[in-house]
Sequence to fold (347 residues):
Amino acid sequence: MIPLRRVFATSVGACRLPHVLQRCFACCPVEFPLPSKRLMSPSSILSRIGRGIALVSFLVLLFPTVTSAQDEGLDTQRIIDNLKMEIPQLRQTGQVSLSSFSDSEIDGFKRATLTVNGRQIPMLVTPDGSQALLLAGPPINVSRSVEEVQDALAAESSERGAALARAAKGMPVRGPADAPVTLVEFSDFQCPYCARASSLVNELMSRYPETLNVVYIHYPLPMHEWARPAAVASQCAARQSDDAFWTLHDAYFDNQNDLTEANVVEKSESYLADASIDMDEWRTCAQDSDSAAHQEVQETIEANMQAGRSVNVTGTPSFYINGQKVQGARSVEAFARLIDQAAANAQ
Fold:
Protein backbone atom coordinates (compact mmCIF):
# COMPACT_ATOMS: atom_id res chain seq x y z
CA MET A 1 0.00 0.00 0.00
CA ILE A 2 1.29 3.46 -0.86
CA PRO A 3 2.12 5.45 2.31
CA LEU A 4 -0.40 8.07 3.31
CA ARG A 5 0.97 11.59 3.34
CA ARG A 6 -0.65 14.35 5.37
CA VAL A 7 -0.26 18.09 5.03
CA PHE A 8 -1.64 20.33 7.78
CA ALA A 9 -2.20 24.05 8.18
CA THR A 10 -4.37 25.53 10.88
CA SER A 11 -4.94 28.78 12.74
CA VAL A 12 -3.86 28.76 16.37
CA GLY A 13 -6.57 27.27 18.55
CA ALA A 14 -9.18 27.37 15.79
CA CYS A 15 -9.22 23.89 14.33
CA ARG A 16 -8.63 20.47 15.77
CA LEU A 17 -8.08 17.69 13.27
CA PRO A 18 -10.31 15.09 14.95
CA HIS A 19 -13.28 17.47 14.99
CA VAL A 20 -12.88 18.18 11.28
CA LEU A 21 -12.87 14.51 10.32
CA GLN A 22 -15.70 13.71 12.73
CA ARG A 23 -17.87 16.27 11.00
CA CYS A 24 -16.95 14.77 7.65
CA PHE A 25 -17.91 11.22 8.53
CA ALA A 26 -20.48 11.25 11.34
CA CYS A 27 -23.44 13.20 12.63
CA CYS A 28 -22.13 13.42 16.17
CA PRO A 29 -18.96 15.52 16.14
CA VAL A 30 -17.49 14.58 19.51
CA GLU A 31 -16.90 10.86 19.73
CA PHE A 32 -15.98 9.65 16.24
CA PRO A 33 -13.05 7.20 16.71
CA LEU A 34 -9.75 8.21 15.16
CA PRO A 35 -6.32 6.55 15.32
CA SER A 36 -4.73 9.00 17.72
CA LYS A 37 -1.22 7.59 17.37
CA ARG A 38 -1.19 8.13 13.64
CA LEU A 39 -2.30 11.78 13.63
CA MET A 40 -0.29 14.65 15.05
CA SER A 41 -2.49 17.30 16.62
CA PRO A 42 -2.34 20.85 15.26
CA SER A 43 -1.09 22.09 18.65
CA SER A 44 1.82 19.64 18.46
CA ILE A 45 2.59 20.81 14.95
CA LEU A 46 2.51 24.44 16.05
CA SER A 47 4.81 23.76 18.99
CA ARG A 48 7.33 22.22 16.62
CA ILE A 49 7.05 24.99 14.08
CA GLY A 50 7.37 27.70 16.72
CA ARG A 51 5.29 30.61 17.85
CA GLY A 52 4.34 33.69 15.92
CA ILE A 53 3.74 31.97 12.58
CA ALA A 54 0.44 32.91 10.99
CA LEU A 55 -1.07 30.02 9.09
CA VAL A 56 -4.15 29.79 6.93
CA SER A 57 -7.14 28.24 8.73
CA PHE A 58 -7.23 25.28 6.42
CA LEU A 59 -6.60 21.55 6.53
CA VAL A 60 -5.60 19.34 3.61
CA LEU A 61 -5.08 15.60 3.49
CA LEU A 62 -3.02 14.38 0.53
CA PHE A 63 -3.79 10.87 -0.65
CA PRO A 64 -1.65 9.42 -3.48
CA THR A 65 -3.88 6.94 -5.29
CA VAL A 66 -3.23 4.31 -7.93
CA THR A 67 -5.89 4.94 -10.55
CA SER A 68 -6.45 4.69 -14.27
CA ALA A 69 -8.21 7.11 -16.57
CA GLN A 70 -11.04 5.73 -18.62
CA ASP A 71 -11.93 7.04 -22.08
CA GLU A 72 -14.97 8.87 -20.69
CA GLY A 73 -13.06 10.31 -17.71
CA LEU A 74 -11.63 9.23 -14.40
CA ASP A 75 -12.09 5.80 -12.88
CA THR A 76 -13.99 7.11 -9.85
CA GLN A 77 -14.56 3.69 -8.32
CA ARG A 78 -10.82 3.04 -8.35
CA ILE A 79 -10.24 6.32 -6.51
CA ILE A 80 -12.90 5.39 -3.94
CA ASP A 81 -11.34 1.95 -3.46
CA ASN A 82 -7.96 3.56 -2.78
CA LEU A 83 -9.44 6.05 -0.34
CA LYS A 84 -11.14 3.22 1.51
CA MET A 85 -7.81 1.40 1.80
CA GLU A 86 -6.17 4.52 3.25
CA ILE A 87 -9.04 5.68 5.50
CA PRO A 88 -10.49 2.93 7.73
CA GLN A 89 -13.53 5.08 8.58
CA LEU A 90 -14.63 5.04 4.94
CA ARG A 91 -14.73 1.25 4.94
CA GLN A 92 -17.25 1.39 7.80
CA THR A 93 -19.70 3.73 6.07
CA GLY A 94 -22.66 2.71 3.97
CA GLN A 95 -22.59 5.03 0.95
CA VAL A 96 -19.51 6.59 -0.65
CA SER A 97 -19.54 8.28 -4.05
CA LEU A 98 -17.37 10.66 -6.06
CA SER A 99 -18.97 13.15 -8.44
CA SER A 100 -19.33 16.76 -9.61
CA PHE A 101 -16.01 17.04 -11.42
CA SER A 102 -15.32 20.56 -12.68
CA ASP A 103 -12.47 22.93 -13.47
CA SER A 104 -10.52 24.17 -10.47
CA GLU A 105 -8.80 27.43 -9.68
CA ILE A 106 -5.84 25.32 -8.49
CA ASP A 107 -3.42 24.56 -11.32
CA GLY A 108 -3.09 20.88 -12.08
CA PHE A 109 -6.30 19.79 -10.32
CA LYS A 110 -9.99 19.35 -10.99
CA ARG A 111 -12.63 19.95 -8.34
CA ALA A 112 -14.77 17.03 -7.18
CA THR A 113 -17.13 16.10 -4.36
CA LEU A 114 -16.77 13.03 -2.16
CA THR A 115 -20.15 12.13 -0.65
CA VAL A 116 -20.07 9.99 2.51
CA ASN A 117 -23.51 8.95 3.81
CA GLY A 118 -25.00 12.11 2.35
CA ARG A 119 -22.24 14.39 3.70
CA GLN A 120 -20.39 16.29 0.97
CA ILE A 121 -16.62 16.75 1.24
CA PRO A 122 -14.74 18.87 -1.33
CA MET A 123 -11.78 17.30 -3.14
CA LEU A 124 -9.16 18.17 -5.70
CA VAL A 125 -8.11 15.44 -8.15
CA THR A 126 -5.35 15.50 -10.77
CA PRO A 127 -6.63 15.14 -14.34
CA ASP A 128 -5.04 11.70 -14.67
CA GLY A 129 -6.55 10.51 -11.39
CA SER A 130 -3.18 9.78 -9.81
CA GLN A 131 -3.53 12.05 -6.75
CA ALA A 132 -6.39 13.43 -4.69
CA LEU A 133 -6.55 16.21 -2.12
CA LEU A 134 -9.30 15.69 0.47
CA LEU A 135 -10.19 19.10 1.92
CA ALA A 136 -11.79 20.21 5.16
CA GLY A 137 -13.36 23.02 3.15
CA PRO A 138 -13.21 24.63 -0.28
CA PRO A 139 -9.91 26.25 -1.30
CA ILE A 140 -9.54 29.68 0.30
CA ASN A 141 -8.71 32.70 -1.82
CA VAL A 142 -5.96 34.51 0.12
CA SER A 143 -5.19 37.08 -2.58
CA ARG A 144 -7.92 39.57 -1.60
CA SER A 145 -7.54 42.86 0.23
CA VAL A 146 -9.06 43.43 3.66
CA GLU A 147 -11.84 45.46 2.08
CA GLU A 148 -12.59 42.73 -0.46
CA VAL A 149 -12.71 40.13 2.30
CA GLN A 150 -15.08 42.27 4.36
CA ASP A 151 -17.34 42.81 1.35
CA ALA A 152 -17.33 39.07 0.61
CA LEU A 153 -18.17 38.23 4.22
CA ALA A 154 -21.03 40.74 4.23
CA ALA A 155 -22.41 39.27 0.99
CA GLU A 156 -22.05 35.74 2.36
CA SER A 157 -23.86 36.72 5.56
CA SER A 158 -26.69 38.30 3.56
CA GLU A 159 -27.04 35.21 1.34
CA ARG A 160 -26.99 32.91 4.37
CA GLY A 161 -29.65 34.98 6.12
CA ALA A 162 -31.86 34.88 3.04
CA ALA A 163 -31.42 31.11 2.69
CA LEU A 164 -32.28 30.56 6.35
CA ALA A 165 -35.34 32.81 6.07
CA ARG A 166 -36.57 30.78 3.10
CA ALA A 167 -35.94 27.51 4.94
CA ALA A 168 -37.70 28.74 8.10
CA LYS A 169 -40.83 29.89 6.28
CA GLY A 170 -43.72 27.68 7.27
CA MET A 171 -41.65 25.50 9.61
CA PRO A 172 -42.62 24.83 13.26
CA VAL A 173 -41.79 27.68 15.65
CA ARG A 174 -41.61 27.93 19.42
CA GLY A 175 -41.73 31.34 21.04
CA PRO A 176 -43.22 34.71 20.05
CA ALA A 177 -43.35 35.42 16.31
CA ASP A 178 -42.04 38.95 16.85
CA ALA A 179 -39.07 37.92 19.02
CA PRO A 180 -35.92 39.91 18.15
CA VAL A 181 -33.77 36.77 18.16
CA THR A 182 -34.41 33.64 16.08
CA LEU A 183 -32.54 30.41 16.72
CA VAL A 184 -32.68 28.13 13.67
CA GLU A 185 -31.82 24.51 14.43
CA PHE A 186 -30.95 21.88 11.82
CA SER A 187 -31.58 18.60 13.57
CA ASP A 188 -32.04 14.84 13.25
CA PHE A 189 -34.46 13.04 15.59
CA GLN A 190 -32.19 9.98 15.84
CA CYS A 191 -28.97 11.88 16.58
CA PRO A 192 -28.09 11.52 20.30
CA TYR A 193 -26.40 14.92 20.36
CA CYS A 194 -29.59 16.50 19.05
CA ALA A 195 -31.44 14.89 21.96
CA ARG A 196 -28.96 16.41 24.40
CA ALA A 197 -29.23 19.79 22.69
CA SER A 198 -33.03 19.78 23.03
CA SER A 199 -32.74 20.23 26.79
CA LEU A 200 -30.35 23.14 26.22
CA VAL A 201 -32.84 24.76 23.84
CA ASN A 202 -35.65 24.28 26.35
CA GLU A 203 -33.60 26.05 29.01
CA LEU A 204 -32.90 28.92 26.64
CA MET A 205 -36.62 29.23 25.88
CA SER A 206 -37.33 29.44 29.62
CA ARG A 207 -34.65 32.07 30.08
CA TYR A 208 -35.74 34.21 27.10
CA PRO A 209 -39.56 33.82 26.85
CA GLU A 210 -40.04 37.18 25.08
CA THR A 211 -36.70 37.52 23.31
CA LEU A 212 -36.21 34.19 21.57
CA ASN A 213 -38.04 31.98 19.14
CA VAL A 214 -36.81 28.64 17.81
CA VAL A 215 -37.36 27.25 14.31
CA TYR A 216 -36.84 23.54 13.67
CA ILE A 217 -35.39 22.51 10.28
CA HIS A 218 -35.26 18.84 9.30
CA TYR A 219 -31.83 17.40 8.52
CA PRO A 220 -32.23 13.58 8.81
CA LEU A 221 -28.94 11.86 8.03
CA PRO A 222 -28.91 8.81 5.75
CA MET A 223 -27.20 6.53 8.27
CA HIS A 224 -30.08 6.98 10.74
CA GLU A 225 -32.76 4.49 9.74
CA TRP A 226 -35.77 6.01 11.46
CA ALA A 227 -34.80 9.69 11.28
CA ARG A 228 -36.44 10.25 7.89
CA PRO A 229 -39.80 8.57 8.68
CA ALA A 230 -39.83 10.49 11.96
CA ALA A 231 -39.23 13.72 10.07
CA VAL A 232 -42.13 12.85 7.76
CA ALA A 233 -44.46 11.93 10.64
CA SER A 234 -43.65 15.11 12.56
CA GLN A 235 -44.01 17.34 9.52
CA CYS A 236 -47.37 15.71 8.76
CA ALA A 237 -48.41 16.73 12.27
CA ALA A 238 -47.04 20.24 11.71
CA ARG A 239 -49.33 20.65 8.68
CA GLN A 240 -52.22 20.74 11.15
CA SER A 241 -50.67 22.07 14.37
CA ASP A 242 -47.30 23.33 15.57
CA ASP A 243 -48.20 21.99 19.01
CA ALA A 244 -48.62 18.50 17.55
CA PHE A 245 -45.22 18.78 15.92
CA TRP A 246 -43.54 19.76 19.19
CA THR A 247 -45.31 16.87 20.93
CA LEU A 248 -43.59 14.46 18.54
CA HIS A 249 -40.31 16.42 18.70
CA ASP A 250 -40.13 16.01 22.46
CA ALA A 251 -41.32 12.38 22.41
CA TYR A 252 -38.72 11.33 19.83
CA PHE A 253 -35.86 12.78 21.84
CA ASP A 254 -37.21 11.43 25.13
CA ASN A 255 -37.63 7.91 23.70
CA GLN A 256 -34.78 7.56 21.21
CA ASN A 257 -33.72 4.16 22.54
CA ASP A 258 -37.21 2.71 22.03
CA LEU A 259 -37.65 3.77 18.41
CA THR A 260 -36.86 1.82 15.25
CA GLU A 261 -37.59 2.19 11.57
CA ALA A 262 -40.30 -0.46 11.97
CA ASN A 263 -42.17 1.13 14.90
CA VAL A 264 -41.59 4.88 14.61
CA VAL A 265 -44.89 5.64 12.84
CA GLU A 266 -46.89 3.44 15.22
CA LYS A 267 -45.17 5.05 18.22
CA SER A 268 -45.82 8.48 16.71
CA GLU A 269 -49.53 7.76 16.62
CA SER A 270 -49.50 6.86 20.31
CA TYR A 271 -47.58 10.05 21.15
CA LEU A 272 -50.29 12.04 19.35
CA ALA A 273 -53.16 10.44 21.29
CA ASP A 274 -54.04 13.73 23.00
CA ALA A 275 -53.27 16.01 20.07
CA SER A 276 -56.07 18.09 18.60
CA ILE A 277 -55.57 17.03 15.01
CA ASP A 278 -57.40 14.89 12.45
CA MET A 279 -55.64 11.54 12.92
CA ASP A 280 -57.02 10.06 9.68
CA GLU A 281 -55.53 12.95 7.77
CA TRP A 282 -52.24 12.51 9.65
CA ARG A 283 -52.14 8.74 8.91
CA THR A 284 -52.65 9.35 5.20
CA CYS A 285 -49.85 11.89 5.17
CA ALA A 286 -47.45 9.79 7.25
CA GLN A 287 -48.11 6.36 5.76
CA ASP A 288 -49.47 6.69 2.22
CA SER A 289 -46.46 7.46 0.04
CA ASP A 290 -48.75 8.02 -2.96
CA SER A 291 -50.79 10.72 -1.25
CA ALA A 292 -50.30 14.34 -2.23
CA ALA A 293 -49.73 15.28 1.43
CA HIS A 294 -46.95 12.73 1.86
CA GLN A 295 -45.20 13.87 -1.31
CA GLU A 296 -45.44 17.52 -0.27
CA VAL A 297 -43.88 16.69 3.09
CA GLN A 298 -41.05 14.81 1.39
CA GLU A 299 -40.46 17.86 -0.79
CA THR A 300 -40.36 20.06 2.32
CA ILE A 301 -37.74 17.83 3.94
CA GLU A 302 -35.66 17.80 0.74
CA ALA A 303 -35.85 21.60 0.66
CA ASN A 304 -34.71 21.67 4.31
CA MET A 305 -31.75 19.44 3.46
CA GLN A 306 -30.80 21.60 0.48
CA ALA A 307 -31.04 24.72 2.63
CA GLY A 308 -28.71 23.12 5.15
CA ARG A 309 -26.15 22.30 2.50
CA SER A 310 -26.37 25.84 1.13
CA VAL A 311 -25.45 27.32 4.54
CA ASN A 312 -22.69 24.77 5.17
CA VAL A 313 -24.40 22.54 7.71
CA THR A 314 -21.74 19.90 8.45
CA GLY A 315 -23.31 18.04 11.37
CA THR A 316 -26.33 17.81 13.59
CA PRO A 317 -27.37 19.72 15.54
CA SER A 318 -26.33 22.94 13.80
CA PHE A 319 -27.55 26.29 15.13
CA TYR A 320 -27.85 29.77 13.63
CA ILE A 321 -28.67 32.84 15.71
CA ASN A 322 -30.12 35.66 13.60
CA GLY A 323 -28.38 34.19 10.56
CA GLN A 324 -24.98 33.68 12.14
CA LYS A 325 -23.70 30.14 12.61
CA VAL A 326 -22.98 29.19 16.22
CA GLN A 327 -19.37 28.06 16.42
CA GLY A 328 -18.07 26.14 19.39
CA ALA A 329 -20.77 27.04 21.92
CA ARG A 330 -21.83 23.98 23.94
CA SER A 331 -23.31 25.40 27.15
CA VAL A 332 -26.40 27.40 28.02
CA GLU A 333 -24.20 30.29 29.15
CA ALA A 334 -22.30 30.34 25.87
CA PHE A 335 -25.56 30.43 23.91
CA ALA A 336 -26.94 33.07 26.27
CA ARG A 337 -24.05 35.40 25.51
CA LEU A 338 -24.70 35.05 21.79
CA ILE A 339 -28.43 35.64 22.25
CA ASP A 340 -27.79 38.75 24.38
CA GLN A 341 -25.46 40.10 21.72
CA ALA A 342 -27.95 39.38 18.91
CA ALA A 343 -30.76 41.05 20.88
CA ALA A 344 -28.60 44.14 21.43
CA ASN A 345 -27.70 44.28 17.74
CA ALA A 346 -31.38 43.98 16.79
CA GLN A 347 -32.35 47.13 18.69
Residues 5-135 form one domain. Residues 1-72 have pLDDT under 50 and may be disordered.
